[in-house]
Fold each of these.
Amino acid sequence: MLLQKLQSADNFSQIEQQIAQVLLDDKINLKNLSARKLAQKVYVAPSTVTRFSQKLGYSGFPALKEDLLNERKVRLQEEQGINPNYPFGILDTEDAILSKITTLYKETVEKTSELFEIDDIPLWSRITDFETICIFSEGDIGPLYTFKDKMLKIGRNVVVTSNADQAYYYASYFGKKWLFITVSYSGETPNVLKAASIIPNKNLLIVTSYGGNSLTKLSKNVIVIPPVERLNDNLGNFAIGVAENLIFDFLYASFFKKDFMHNKHKKVEIAKQFQVARYSDNEYLQDRQ
């Protein structure tokens, strides 16, 4: 993440360290800060600020500033809300735990939604054109199978695998035909990187944590989730699952909407044919006639 790079100041010259310190100063009005104004604060030419930005992997200072503003926003939200790593404590009552988990879910949904930028995903305009979707993750694949089940009910084929060998063979044979979605919170999972590396950029959609990693370098089509949970130092993966469910529910809705009336009719028709004996006395659960 950019904040970590600025704080560590690895391989920074003295001037670059001064630039980093200005950017890390919370009192600075970062939103209105230009490369020229920043250069004036450390007594260098604006081109020095541009080169500093490029050294960190950005095209220029505006791109760096945008990333830094987003990271600051995420950090502020973390400080103000429930700690996703330790959302409850040993002294909390059951009611308090329920309240905190509920708040965490709400905060995670809001943060994930704010980070979602469809315009930044080049393949989104043709995402519903793919006949088959292959999803590969070595993490929790529960949300992925929920997505697969929903898609099946509107006639869409989804392959979910956590097997590295299968993923690599799928990528080798169908990389140019299928939509591949690789899911890795860290973005550094070796087997995920290996499979993703042989898939054409135009067919690869990445779901990973915000802040940049090795996986995001393999495709321009990236959906990011809030980097709020540590890899190991936590009480369980609460926020990650919520974020992934939101993303894949939205993806399902996008496919459904493409042919809304047809999908609605077929889904309900087939469900009624198969579940003839399904019944409930609860009037809230009963289908409309």
Note: Strands lie at 132-137, 157-161, 179-184, 204-209, 222-225.
Amino acid sequence: LRVLLIIAAILGIVLLFVGLLAEGLEGWLSLSLALLGVALAVTSPLIIFLKLNKLIKHFDKRLDEERERARALYSEALATVKPLLLLFTDYDTQRLIEKTLPDFSFDDTFNFERLDDLSESFGYSPPTSPDISVIDTLSGTLGTSPFLYESTKKMEMGLETYHGYRTISWTTVERDSNGKMRTVHHTDTLHASVTKPKPYYSTDTRLVFGHNAAPDLMFSRTPEHSDDLSDRALKKKINKGEDKLEDLERKALTDDDPTTNFTKLANSEFEVLLGATNRTNEQQFRLLYTPLAQTETRRLLLDKENFGDDFIFEKRGRLNIISSEHTASMSLDSRTDNYFSHDEKEIRQKFIAYNNSYFKAVYFDIAPLLAIPAYHEPRTPSLEKYVSMHTQNYPTTEYEVLANKLREPSLIPHGCETEVIMKARAVNRYGDVDNAEIISRGFKTIPRTHVETVFGRDGRFHSVPVQWLEYIPIETSCFISIKRVGLSADEFSERAGQNRPSGVVYHGLYATLAEDMKEGSEAIKALI
């Protein structure tokens, strides 16, 4: 309304000037316009100042009162559910899985004991590429064998195609149907493109599982979504796959390569569905995939009610790696923020839905391993004992996880316009405090113009500009300190209250910028 009145006042001034200055208008019309202009120019501001402003102030006051009332009600609701929220911990999801599947046991923190076991006994190597950062971990044991969930962020240089357009016009002289000459106007839109490098970022989550069964066997399989096929389409796929298996077997028997010794199983349907034809040891493959394992794996691959055939399974000797589509972008972070609310009923709904979803994702990641009876066998104890020679308290993997959770501006390179890949390097240890250097890499952009010559329909060449972005690598580094507090994030916040130091608590570890650690450590000592 205020805007309309301001427009009316401006219109009144315009009418006043038109009525007074316009020539050629009749006297009565000029006078009418001038009087109307005066009325609008005077009454509109009066309405705004005398009436409208009072109404606005009144409603602003009412709005502030309602906002304050809403804040009070929200605070009251939070106070009501606070005792319930304090019952939750960051490890509730893992404890529920352990109670449901007793063979599972989760670690609070991915530690050197688990890392050394996976590395020395099963051949696991943490990501070392400067283009891959570990953003979360979840480790433990399944039975007597270790596992590690590993979420990573990866940067890959790809290509981006930029487009530019230019409209040209020209005239020609033509003779019309009557024989007369006429001028014809033409237009044409010219197009040019240029392809330049661009960084692309993706996240992935994989399950790493160590077991001594079939230690010399290597193979891989990729998802083919056989569960989406109709019975007729599935039968057609099996028949076609059987022909390929026979060709592959024939070729392996007739060539001179001793490494190609493929011999298909009697259960050709299972062979086609699994697709692990690149296996390196036929005997151990058969020991692994017994008739029972074949039946259970087939049921899993054709399961239409759950995730079905959506997983990569890679076996590298004693190391088994599962990467599924349903956990590719899943967050391993099970902190209580996932079901925070001011409403008790909503908390219950979120808690049940979140933990059901988490359990389902984890269970069907481990299902391809559970389908194999050999993986249920207890681990053979190793006679070799590994002596830890580490100079820090925690693996650098955990440093990267904490750095990604920290979200400190100083961890981001100045002028960075892309996502960031953080890599950690252990620096030193002072008692129970680890110091690490975090190197963050990203890109800034510089606008560029590429000019391409394009031939137009007017018979001439024209310059078409294409705007594109050049990505310039940039990086920064800073130091963080890590200390074990043995508390969840909520427990830490509750105990600290207003005295909570800066930083982040995750996996029972407290991380902050190194220069803040002294103050933070003293605050932590007071808490624990």
Note: The mean pLDDT is 85.
